[in-house]
Amino acid sequence: KQWYQRRVAITAGGTFEDIDLESTDPTAAFSTVFTEHGLCYSFNQDGNLTMSRTGALYGLSLRLHVAQDDYFETQDVAGFKVLLHNSYEPPMIEEYGFALRPGSETYVRIRLQKYKDTPRPLGYCDPLLEQKFNTNYTISVCVMQYRAINMLKKCGCIAFYMDRPDIDISGDQPYIRPRICNLKEERTCADQVLEGLALGTLRINGEKVPDPDCPSPCVYTTYTYTVSQSEYPSSAVKDKVVEEVNKQKGISPEEADETAWTIERIRDNYLKVHIYFEELSTLEMERHPSYLISNLIGDVGGQLGLLLGMNICSLVQFTDYIIRFSFFKGVMSLVRLYKAKKQREK
User: Whole-structure pTM over 0.85, yes or no?
Assistant: First the structure.
C-alpha cells in the first residue's frame, strides 16, 4: 500500500487529532514501543508502507504538542527525540536519536544506503550471525543483548525496554522470560550496569566484563538524513494560529483569560516536522578485499618480468639450456672415464 500524503498531529498524552490520512484507520500506522525514554510511538513498525514519490508533500508530516505544563521540575530539556531505523531493528533512541525543539518547523530529508561486506577471514562480517541470534541480526540487537545479559547477571533482572522477542539471553538453555527490574532496582543497579558498560569499568564476580563482540552484518541498510529548521509559527500567521489553537481547546475569543493560548505559549509547546525521502534512488556500497593471492602472483610475475626480462619463452629456453648443458657434461665425463681406463690398461 502506498501513502502519498500523511498529516498527523499527536500530543504527548498519546491522543491523535487533526488527522488527514489516506486510510480508514490512520492510527494503525503507529504502534507503541518501549525505549530508554519510556513509551514511544513507532511509525510503519511492520514495514508494510512504501513510498513512491519524493519531497515534503509526500512524506510524513506531524504537528507535535510538547505539553510543557505536564513536565516535572527535574526535566531541563523540552521537545521530542526522533530516530530513523529499520523496522526489524530495536530503537536505540538514546544513542542515535536527534532532537526537535518547540517553536520550530523541521524538515528531515532521508536517503537510503545499502552496504555489503565480505565474510571472514577476508572481511569483517560473520555470515552465521543470523543463525546465532535467530533473528535479523543488527549491531543494535547485539549491543542490547550484550547489555541485557550483563544486567541479568549483575542485578537478576533486565530493563523494561529489553523485554523483546529479538533479545534472547537464554543462550543454549530453555527459554525463561527474565524478570523486569522494578524502579528501585533500575536506580540502584541497572543504571550503574549501563554506566559501567559504557565506561568499560563493570565487574561481575570480580572479573572485568569484556567489550561486546558485535561485528557488522554482511548485508545491512542505513538511513542518512539532513535536518533544517525554521521558526513556527511565523509572525505573518501567528494570529490565525492562536485563534485555531484556542478553538481546538474550546476557548472562544470572548471568554479568553489566563488559560487562553498566546503565541508565546504556542511556540513553547508546538512544533512541526516533515520527514521525507530526498530521492528514490539507493546508494549501494560493496566492500571487497583489495589484495588477493591472484594479485600477489600477478605482481610477482610482473616484477620478475621487469627485472629479469623473463617470460614463458625465456623459461623454456633456459630449461632447454640446462638440460643440454647437463647432457653435455655427462657425456664429457663418460669420455674422460673411458680414456682413463684405456691408459690404465696400457
Answer: no
